[in-house]
Amino acid sequence: MGTEDKSYGVVTDTIGKVASDVYADVARPAARQIGSALETLFKVSLSPVSMLDWGFEQSKDWLKKKVEERTSKTPQNFLRTPPNNIAIPALTSISMSADAPELRELYAELLLKAMDSRTEPMVHPSYINVIGQLTSQEALVFISFQEIGSTTLFQENNARYSHGNDLTIEIQFINHCLSIGLENTKYMQLWLENLQRLKLIDLREYSEVSYVEPDADTPYPSVNNREDRYLELTIYGREFLKACTPPDAV
């Protein structure tokens, strides 16, 4: 038997004991149909590394409560066992983020959406990897964009005759971080660039030159150089935000 086979056996034996407890009470009359399938899913979902076992022990009651709450609100005909390529990495990541509740919430929401046939298509497998590249602070900032309610997050206008916002995108981003209670301004530029690197947001720049006729205020003709910058959610970022946001927060 190879090393991978041995590891897989440890996963089944070790995590099966822990995971069965999580869903022992989920299989109530309204959810009994999927309870057994979910228990089976959990038995093969996590790494045998002891730290992951510890992390799952810390999270199993919390996750069990979330599953019970969501399934109690989901019509039985829409309940389904989540795909392995979502459930296994999500559950592994939940065990690894017991000390990072902001990230754990995002992983759990992806798992919960994957358990409902109406929302399962929203959960792209790559989203779990994206969360793994976020700090807790970055996750808080990104989820807070839901409250802005627009694809365009911040706008900067630099023009002689513009009445728009002349604060830089970077300053507006910092101000937003401060407004949601984050204080470590030293790393906010890093957060901004990381969200861009992950293709969740995009900084777009536009420039335009126009001739300005003389008027009472400016007796001589002039040239207006307009430079606009927009920080926007990408299509990928917008769908990722929807997938990570609980239904009652939309």
Describe, in plain words, how this protein is organized in 3D.
With about 250 residues, the chain is an alpha+beta fold. The chain is about 50% helix and about 10% strand. The chain folds into two domains: about 5-130, no CATH class; about 140-240, no CATH class. The protein has ten helices and three strands. Strands 1-3-2 form a three-stranded antiparallel β-sheet.
- Proportion of residues in extended strands: 5-15%
First-residue to last-residue Cα separation = 49 Å
The neighbouring-strand order within the major sheet is 1-3-2
**What's the story with the biggest beta sheet?**
3 strands, antiparallel
Please provide the count of β strands: 3
In round numbers, the mean pLDDT is 80
InterPro entries: Abi_alpha (IPR025506)
Protein name: DUF4393 domain-containing protein
Please specify the SSE layout and strand pairing:
Blueprint: H1 3-22, H2 32-43, H3 50-72, H4 84-96, H5 101-114, H6 126-131, H7 136-144, E1 152-158, H8 169-179, H9 188-197, E2 201-212, E3 222-233, H10 235-244
Antiparallel strand pairs: 1-3, 2-3
Protein name: DUF4393 domain-containing protein
InterPro entries: Abi_alpha
Organism: Pseudomonas leptonychotis
Short description:
InterPro entries: Abi_alpha. It is built from 10 helices and 3 strands, in the order αααααααβααββα.
Provide the descriptors you would attach to this structure in a database record.
2 domains, 3-stranded antiparallel sheet, 3 strands, 12% strand, single chain
